[in-house]
Write a structure and sequence with these properties.
Blueprint lengths: L1 H31 L2 E6 L4 E5 L2 E5 L3 E6 L2 E8 L6 E7 L4 E5 L7 E4 L2 H9 L7 H10 L4 E2 L5 E7 L6 E7 L10 E5 L7 E5 L5 E6 L5 E7 L4 E8 L1 E7 L6 E6 L6 E7 L4 E4 L9 E5 L2 E7 L3 H7 L2 E8 L4 E9 L6 E3 L5 E6 L2 E6 L3
Parallel strand pairs: 1-7
Antiparallel strand pairs: 1-4, 2-3, 2-5, 5-6, 8-27, 9-10, 10-11, 11-12, 13-14, 14-15, 15-16, 17-18, 18-19, 19-20, 21-22, 22-23, 23-24, 25-26, 26-27
Length: about 350
């Protein structure tokens, strides 16, 4: 009888031990030895944790795993892969918002757009306006909106040259000219660049065999001689209308360089970017997008000529390659207003580099 009672107690104890062990194991397995990876990203996308693949069809994606070190690879079609090395503790959580980086792609644009892009003339150019421009008998330059023209011509009142502006009317005829400033000496060779707000004008005077840069205030109607170079080949305003870029050839050098000119101080800052200004698009005051020719002779011989599209950060003077393409340099590049596409010419084709979704 005592023996049976003892066996019964032992059996009950064994059962309790088994249940307790199971409870401890379950607590360990499902609570302590458990971790969660939570990813927030624009779906659909895929996450690889070690050797396991998970398809995330919703923006919020939860992945159950075990504690320890894990390597994550996140993939989304048309975007760059994201890689993470993480450490998860017992019952740990890893949370992150992922912004996938769009992989730029090239696209061919229809021919009609090519001719408008290549001509580089405002849409207001028509036969009536063309005849009036021809009567001016001087080089004509447009403001960024294409609504005003600027030129230097003889002032009938004093027979001196003056800088004129004229608005293009809604009837496609020029309105009466306005004088901005008058010059003592003749300027025979020059070009103008008008700021986005039309309040400032860059005059590059090339009459005397060197290039002298004048900054003209169209509101106060005065001008300032800023600087001279053996040759200023091109100029372009930043969107703020304060700073601008120059492409110049310096003394004792056959090469051209780009300078960033801070409008408030007129301090020239040389850029470490080997590109012609016609192949540079201004994204903002700190960033340029440029097309540069591959200068590696060995690589060119092996793969052919290549164009590299780069992002240049002005304050840091750093260059990042966005995309490469076989071919020679284009005649010009241009960003659209949304800065989604970079348009460029290549062998009589208009192409676009899509920079973002």
């Amino acid at each position: 009888m005592i023996a049976n009672e003892t066996k019964k107690r032992l059996a009950i104890g064994a059962l309790i031990l088994i249940l307790l062990t199971g409870a401890i194991f379950g607590f360990w397995k499902w609570y302590l030895n458990h971790a969660v990876i939570s990813i927030q990203a624009k779906s659909p996308y895929a996450v690889t944790v070690g050797s396991k693949n998970f398809q995330c069809k919703t923006d919020q994606c939860h992945i159950d795993t075990i504690p320890g070190k894990h390597h994550l690879t996140l993939k989304k079609e048309g975007y760059s892969d994201e890689n993470r090395d993480i450490q998860l503790s017992l019952n740990g959580h890893y949370d992150e918002n992922i912004n996938f980086r769009f992989m730029p792609v090239f696209k061919k644009i229809a021919n009609p757009d090519f001719f408008q892009f290549a001509a580089d003339l405002p849409e207001k150019q028509n036969q009536k306006l063309a005849q009036e421009l021809k009567n001016i008998a001087a080089p004509v330059f447009y403001d960024p909106s294409g609504n005003y023209i600027y030129y230097i011509a003889r002032n009938k009142n004093n027979f001196r040259q003056s800088l004129f502006s004229q608005q293009i009317g809604t009837d496609d005829h020029l309105k009466d000219p306005a004088i901005i400033t008058t010059f003592i000496r003749d300027i025979d060779k020059y070009f103008l660049r008008i700021s986005p707000a039309r309040d400032k004008i860059l005059l590059i005077d090339q009459t005397d065999g060197i290039s002298t840069l004048y900054l003209i205030d169209a509101v106060l109607k005065n001008r300032l001689n800023l600087m001279s170079f053996p040759l200023i080949r091109a100029a372009a305003w930043f969107a703020d209308g304060k700073d601008f870029l120059l492409e110049v050839r310096e003394a004792n050098s056959p090469l051209f360089s780009l300078y960033d000119i801070q409008g408030d101080t007129a301090t020239p800052e040389k850029l470490d970017l080997n590109a012609a200004l016609q192949n540079v698009a201004i994204a903002n005051n700190n960033t340029l997008i440029a097309a540069v020719q591959n200068e590696d002779a060995a690589q060119s011989a092996a793969t052919g000529a290549q164009i590299s599209f780069v992002e240049y950060t002005i304050p840091l003077k750093q260059t990042r390659v966005i995309k490469t393409l076989e071919g020679t340099l284009s005649d010009k590049v241009e960003l659209d207003k949304e800065q989604k596409f970079l348009y460029f010419l290549r062998q009589n084709e208009l192409l676009a580099l899509q920079l973002k979704e």
